[in-house]
Structure prediction request, 696 residues.
Amino acid sequence: MIGFGKIRRAIAALVTVSFLAGAPVSAVEVDEIDWTAVLRALGVALDSWRLSPFPRMTPTPTNPPATDTPTPTNTPTFTQTRTPTFTPTLQPTQTNLGQLAFGPSTGLAPAQRLASAFLVFPYVVHSGSKETLVTLINMAERDVRVNCFFIKDAGPVLGCLEVGFSVNLTPLQPFSWYVGDGTNNPLTFTAAPPFDGVGELKCAVDPEIPDLDAHNVLQGRATVFDDDDGDTVAYGAIGFQRRVPGHYSGVISLDGFTYDQCPERLHFQVLAQQSGSNSSLILTPCEEDLLTQTPTSTVVQMQIVNEFEQVFSSSRDFTCLSVLSFSSISTLRRSTLGTDTAHLVLRGVSSPLVGMVIDRFTGGPDNSLHSSANDPYLEGGRRSTVIFP
Amino acid sequence: MSVSSIRYGLYAVLAVLVFAGSAQATAPAQRVPSAIIMYPNVRNEAGFDTRIEMVNLSSRDQQVKCHYLTPPSCNGTDFFVRLTPNQPISWLASRGTLGGGGHVGVAVPPFFGSGSLKCFVIPEEDGADQNAIQGRAITYGAGGYTESFGAIGIERLSPGEYSSTFELDGINYAQCPDYYHFTFLASELGDPDTESELILSTCDEDLENVIARETVIQFEIINEFEETFSASTSVRCYDRQVLSDINPVFSRDVLGTATGQVIVRGVQGAVIAVIVDKFVTPGGGAPAVSGNEPALSRGRSARIRIP
Prediction:
């Protein structure tokens, strides 16, 4: 025998179904059954079912044109149209063929401005009135030891001279010093020897434990300024992340497996050399063997694209470090280029390179001389090794 | 099998589904060809002008849409730039450019005041590689004053249809940086003063509905003795503040050391941050200025909508 409670629950279920089906049921009193409302709700529910997407499928067999259902027919057409378009578009990006005669670049450029295990400061100066403030920061909440080397070109006889030192950084500690003065701070247990001349600085993290997180903790910055006139160039160090856990050995394999690879190409947007504007190009090889004091020499190939997409080229060779004035590269002159700016692409032949451009131009209300650091955009990756003593 | 074990099994499946869809919070790789570039600082005011540079690092034509945002209205001024393969272009904020010198697809209005500039690669067809551009802005004034910053680049991470809503979620596009680590020079009284400035702008933007974002900024400051301080401020679309005006903790007297590390983070949303170092050379007492770009850690999702 069906009890009144069961009937009431059945009606409530029907009302719920009708409500879920989108029927505008409101103020239903279950205790006092309003049969008119129930029937109206049922009617609305049936109407809503009739109007739901499912019944629309029913006419399909009765209406042959609709059975053709353009949707499935269109789907493969759409896919086929997209696939060939997508593939060839990607190819030029990876190879960079077209205007530039450089071959395809493979490998991955090192991601920049992240906590790193190995840093390169390509331009450090203490000469005349020029001085450099170097800053290192420990981005991790653990102690870290950093192994650093100043390297400068001491001529064809002496080769690349190095001065090494180590600093210990406490968690999140910033550490800065003027390279001409060096530093010896007994409060922070950090010391760096003075440096003289023009060179580069390379620093590697020597962690206490082999964890990957213990390697990628370092970032740095250098501010090169003229004490007399305040001419200032500041830049961030080029960083390389460690990719696998392991102990630091002094051999930094920039192979894309142990550490990030060196960039295959450097891209700069530069101001053409003209009256009042004479920028400088600073380059240093990635490859460095300080253990056997073997200097690295390489040719650098340059491709220069002006604002009209016309391409020029040039090349130079150097050892240890190169500081080139734009006025010494005829293809970077405004009179040759024909435009105010150019896209400069660099590639080291024997060794990949790191470097920067120092923009120098006149402007402003008083037509004064301005300087700024111009960090490169990086493309591709290439294997290289740095060996510390 | 008991009901509870089924329930726990369902929870486990749900948890896997939830975390499988979430992105890893990583800072965006910089100095690589990108699909979105954000210039943190553009000025055309009171004796300052800015040269804006943009370069196509790909071997294809690129269509780029840019928006210049300036307070207090935070309304966007937008324009299109068309770049041929490997083409560099540049213009002055005070003048803009109108297709001069053979730049057929380039028309840029002049910018006024100070603000931020965001540019987006608009692919000619769905699925085309959008990681193609990079840029830089050099602001200069009287007496050799120069502050230059590379644009923050955001890479497209997965191919897909173009949409005017950019999901910087670590799946479609790289996330915005979450933490900015700067080394800064402590403020110090002198002639002139050492008074560095912080430039902030929001990463989230709704330019379609012109809704300016506002967020609190938290600072963690660590001196060379590893002593830690904190401070805070807020930003609405773009702002420029002297460090010692934000809090005296940025001054040498309070900090106790000449340099420090400051970690900057937006609370309600991700931000873009750079510092302008202003100091006096220690030997000659000459005023010096330089751009100070941060190291980045972790990523944070953001959304940008353009009209």
